[in-house]
Amino acid sequence: MDLPKGLAGVIVDETEISSTAGGKLIYSGYPIAELADSTYEEVVFLLWHSRLPMKAELEAFRKELVSEMVLPSESTRLLLYVAKEPQHPMSILRTATSLLGTTNNVKQDEPPKILAKMLTLIASIVRIRQGEPMKEPDPKLGVADNFLYMLTGKKPTLEHAKMFNTVMILHADHEFNASTFTARVVASTSADYYSCLTAAVCALKGPLHGGANERVFRMLEEIVDNDADPIEYVKDRIANKLKVMGFGHRVYKNGDPRAAILRDIAEKLAKETHNEKYFDVQIKIAAFMLEEKGLHPNVDYYTALVYHCLGLERDLFTPIFAACRTAGWLAHVMEQRRESCLIRPSSEYVGPKAREYYKDHYVTTKGDI
């Protein structure tokens, strides 16, 4: 049997949440480009309810999410200890997400409360690791605006808030990616929400899924700090069979629709924060990779520079990705729960056959004498 590696191209289930069919990303029927100027909470409502909210519903939803962006005292106390450990932030997030499942009401907590607390958890990890005090949400701000404020300690400008809303929207969901599918598998066992999110974080922690944006900026730093020629740098990586981070996608062969939107944001922020040197390098590499390899930038390529320009440290990029994607994870967990069907695929066995235990056991034990 000729099996596709990594289930590539295999349709394993149906979903009403998002689609990448035809190289286009849609959330519940709406093209991502049309949603990019919306607000994060409006898109979350769409992912969870398959429709846009009425004005009153949206305001109530926003207030509910912001009001829940506070951690229980037990979570905060333990987080102050755990987050200071010299581990990668994704390792801290993995443990801290599981911790939420022990310091909250697991049976009664619902997605709005869980999403709000995940955002606060991630912002708190960032602040603690930077030796800065944790910030409480501002009820006058939206969800994404508050998250950026709680990350940086500074109230965002209207323009920065709009940009960050767009970034969070673009990362909110992406069909059956590795971490989302992991969450659905766990949800199919009727496990609680926190277990599903912990599993999703574990999947995102792997460098072949999450972490790409972090490695993109490491590449940019190596080029800029060493005053290297970006094209020669890339050629050298290709010659040594090393991956050029931020390019190519299993689904998008003609370009990631999110990357085009993020490119504009990265360019604006780079000019504003005097990081043009990084953006110039990105443009040169992108042109070379398209001409020589036919590869387009993916969502991680420009996200890395956006996060840097907003004052975020490189090793925090993936936890912030997790914060954005939590809305999508929860949407898929809810959808999988409604199906009430255990995910249990079959495999093709390719190991040895027709072995005889007593015969082989006699031979091996005799040989040991």
UniProtKB/TrEMBL annotation:
GO cellular component terms listed in the entry, alphabetical order: cytosol
Active site positions: H249, D300
Biological pathway: Carbohydrate metabolism; tricarboxylic acid cycle
Superkingdom of the organism of origin: Bacteria
Catalytic reaction(s) noted: oxaloacetate + acetyl-CoA + H2O = citrate + CoA + H(+)
Pfam families: Citrate_synt
SUPFAM superfamilies given in the database record: Citrate synthase (SSF48256)
GO biological process: carbohydrate metabolic process; tricarboxylic acid cycle
Coiled coil: none
Keywords associated with the record: Transferase
InterPro entries according to UniProt: Citrate_synth-like_lrg_a-sub, Citrate_synth-like_sm_a-sub, Citrate_synthase, Citrate_synthase_AS, Citrate_synthase_bac-typ, Citrate_synthase_sf
MF annotations from Gene Ontology: citrate synthase activity
Family as reported in the entry's similarity comment: Belongs to the citrate synthase family.
Protein name (database record): Citrate synthase
